[in-house]
């Protein structure tokens, strides 16, 4: 078998990379930087009922929709997962994800532990989960305040909720401590590389190996 024939015989199924963390611990920054550094990774654009934050763009950061439309998506089974976080609803659209995975494309999303649990049920063999820990609670609070996107009351609410969020770290495949952003991005990139080589994602590999053995 020539090299071109071998490459056609084996093709890879894509996977969904999920990053979770308490708000402010770095999951969104890591996600954005991963996509900037790897053109073969795509961002899963979630739907949400919350209003846009300064600088956010509809269709790029989120798909901003009203509650009535969100409820219709849930009722029609069009969401792989959905959750209510800080009084707003979030969800992952089913069709774009399933099409990408079947086409061998890898998708990245950053969602909370509730959404991750649902995705694990929906895509048990196509999901890779990473939990991002802050180096300390003081550092987490400082990042939230430095972000300057939320009021002091909202920051306090996020800090209060972080203890519950942190308790779910053991449910994830990988856990990293985000001490320095470039180091954290490199660690997640290593995870992506390793997961792309997993045997279960190599469609046609068994037939290829059998042909090799037959000479």
Which characteristics define this entry?
11 strands; 4-stranded mixed β-sheet; Rossmann fold
Secondary structure layout plus pairing:
Elements: H1 3-9, E1 11-12, E2 16-20, H2 27-37, E3 41-43, E4 47-48, E5 63-64, H3 67-75, E6 79-85, E7 88-93, H4 94-102, E8 106-110, H5 113-122, E9 127-133, H6 137-147, H7 152-166, E10 174-177, H8 181-196, E11 202-203, H9 205-214
Helix pairs in contact: 2-8
Number of helices: 9
**Residues in β-strands, percent:** 15-25%
SS content category: alpha/beta
CATH C-level: Alpha Beta
- Give the total of beta strands: 11
What would you call the shape? globular
Q: For the largest beta sheet, what order do the strands appear in spatially?
A: 3-8-2-9-10
- Cα radius of gyration in angstroms: 19 Å
Give the rounded overall mean pLDDT: 90
CATH topology: Rossmann fold
The arrangement of helices and strands along the chain is HEEHEEEHEEHEHEHHEHEH
- Runs in which pLDDT lies below 50 for 5 or more consecutive residues are none
By CATH, the architecture is named 3-Layer(aba) Sandwich
Question: Which homologous superfamily in CATH is the superfamily?
Answer: P-loop containing nucleotide triphosphate hydrolases
Estimate nothing, just give the exact number of structural domains: 1
The termini sit apart by 9 Å
Portion of residues within helices:
40-55%
User: What composes the largest sheet?
Assistant: 5 strands, parallel
What does this structure look like?
This protein is an alpha/beta fold. The protein has a single domain (3-44, 105-214), classed as Rossmann fold (3-Layer(aba) Sandwich). 46% of the residues lie in helices and 21% in strands. The protein has 9 helices and 11 strands. The strands form 3 sheets. A 5-stranded parallel β-sheet has the order 3-8-2-9-10, with helices on both faces. A 4-stranded mixed β-sheet has the order 5-4-7-6. Strands 1-11 form a two-stranded antiparallel ribbon. β6 (79-85) and β7 form a beta hairpin. It starts with a helix and ends with a helix.
